[in-house]
Structure formats: C-alpha cells, structure tokens
Amino acid sequence: MSNSNLWESKPWWCQPWTIILTGVIIVAGSWLLFHTIWLTVPVAMLIVVWWTYFLIIVPRILAQQDLDRS
Question: pLDDT (tens digit, 9 = 90+) per residue, 27-48?
C-alpha cells in the first residue's frame, strides 16, 4: 500500500490535515483554557508523539511492508 493509497482509504476525519488541525486545536485550547505552560507543554508533547506515530511511522511501516511483499 503506497502512501497515497493509505490516505485514500481513510475517511475525511482521518486525513493528515485533520490530524494536524485537531492537534493544533487541542494545544491551543489547552493554552486558552488554562493559561499554564506546565500543562500546555505536556499536551503539546503528546500531540507531537501522536503526529509522529500516525503521520510518519505508520505510513513508513506500511510502505515497507508493501515493498517486502513485491
């Protein structure tokens, strides 16, 4: 499964732009609600981990598996 096929098979709410937008909204919402850096930074770090996993690691693993099959 190529990268383009991966995203083509996902619904609109599971596209890269929605994943990034959701993360930005969560981090901004954390700051706007609590105005505390000690809470917003860990939230941002979790979002970056989430982005790294779903936007970088998973597509690479699936692309590698596709290469291994061919």
Answer: 999 999 999 999 999 999 999 9
Residue 68 has a pLDDT of 85
pLDDT recorded at residue 41: 98
Whether the Cβ atoms of residue 66 and residue 1 lie closer than 8 Å to each other: yes
Distance CA 29, CA 24 (A): 8
Q: Domain containing 28: what range?
A: 15-62
If we measure between CA atoms, which residue out of 30, 25, 54 comes closest to residue 42? Answer: 30
| 49 neighbors 57 (Cβ within 8 angstroms) | no
CB atoms within 10 A of CB 8: 10
Residue 70 lies in a domain: no
